Amino acid sequence: MYCRTFDKLTVTKKLGSAEGICYNEHNTAVMTLEVQHMIIAIANQKGGVGKTTTAINLGGNLAQRGRRVLLVDLDPQGNAATCLGIQKQRLEQTVGEVLLGETPIQEAIMPTGRPGFDILPATPDLAGTAVSLAGLMARETRLRQALAVVANQYDFILIDCPPSLDLLTVNGLASANQVVIPLQCEFLALEGLAQLKETIELIRTHLNSTLFIGGVVMTMYDGRANLARQVVEEVRRYFPQRIFNTIIPRNIRLSEAPSHGELIAEYDPQSRGAQAYAALAEELLQREETRR
Ligand SMILES: Nc1ncnc2c1ncn2[C@@H]1O[C@H](COP(=O)(O)OP(=O)(O)O)[C@@H](O)[C@H]1O
Ligand SMILES: [Mg+2]
């Protein structure tokens, strides 16, 4: 549910919403609305292209703008929680147990310590989970089933996919409304994209017919390099409508922030990286606004 929708409907103060029912400041249900949430899979089977960096910083920026955000870490490297400053020892129940049906999702979701920003974390055990999952019923839609239980509590759910097109990524894509693809501005950036698009098509045919490619985010752009400019032009030709106008620059501060357990907006809000991710969040919100 977007705050703007609440404003339009003159709900004076949003204190909570569940199952489409909104409550006013007296905690009285005031009207029933269709709850809208957007589930975004951040996917690219190449590693090191900026998926996790985009997931955490986009999530942080959306939460800063008053949206309720859940970040789902689907990568067995389990980096997302660490990047957000959450100690590994604090992780008890994780996305792995949720996928295996051993833990209710509500028990595995934890706050990131930032208002409106929660995480469903992962640990390296997730690699083993993926193997066990292969032999289970409804193996491709386990995450979707789990997210359905909590989806109404969030405006955005961002799924940080692993660097492969395995069952975990399939779960991510089967759960999502849209895919956002980070692409590094480098030689062969488009390589592997045909395979990703093919996987997305298969998911649309068999599991999730309304899934769409929401956008391509160009990352680690070095404006001094001719090659980077050429790559952006090439991707523009390949995805004319889909490429985000916001381009994420290569910025050392972005690579330093995770080691401090901070988002770029916390670590260095003036940096070019922080400004770029803030602009990306704005652009995404504008796109969602025009889509509705
Ligand atoms: N725009 C950027 N500028 C500089 N370093 C970046 C940028 N985006 C990501 N990085 C760094 O590059 C590495 C890979 O990024 P990451 O987001 O983990 O990629 P992925 O999740 O696709 O594997 C990390 O060390 C990260 O801090
Ligand atoms: Mg990652």
CATH fold description of the largest domain: Rossmann fold
Query: What is the number of beta strands?
Result: 10
Mean pLDDT: 89
Global Rg = 19 Å
Identify the bound ligands: adenosine-5'-diphosphate, magnesium ion
Q: Under the CATH scheme, which architecture of the largest domain would be assigned?
A: 3-Layer(aba) Sandwich
Report strand %: 15-25%
Order of helices and strands: HEEEEHEHHHEEHHEHEHEHHHH
CATH C-level of the largest domain? Alpha Beta
**How large is the count of helical segments?**
13
Roughly how many Å apart are the termini? 12 Å
Shape annotation: globular
Name the features:
single chain, about 290 residues, alpha/beta, Rossmann fold, 2 domains, seven-stranded mixed beta sheet, three-stranded antiparallel beta sheet, 13 helices, 10 strands, about 40% helix, disordered N terminus, binds adenosine-5'-diphosphate, binds magnesium ion
In short:
This protein has 292 residues and is of the alpha/beta class. It contains 13 helices and 10 strands.
Secondary structure elements and their pairing?
Blueprint: H1 3-8, E1 17-18, E2 21-23, E3 29-32, E4 38-42, H2 51-64, E5 69-73, H3 79-83, H4 95-99, H5 105-108, E6 110-114, E7 117-120, H6 126-133, H7 142-150, E8 156-160, H8 167-175, E9 178-184, H9 193-206, E10 212-219, H10 226-238, H11 252-256, H12 264-267, H13 272-291
Helix pairs in contact: 2-13, 7-8
Bound molecules: adenosine-5'-diphosphate and magnesium ion.
Magnesium ion is lined by residues 51-52, 75, 79, 160.
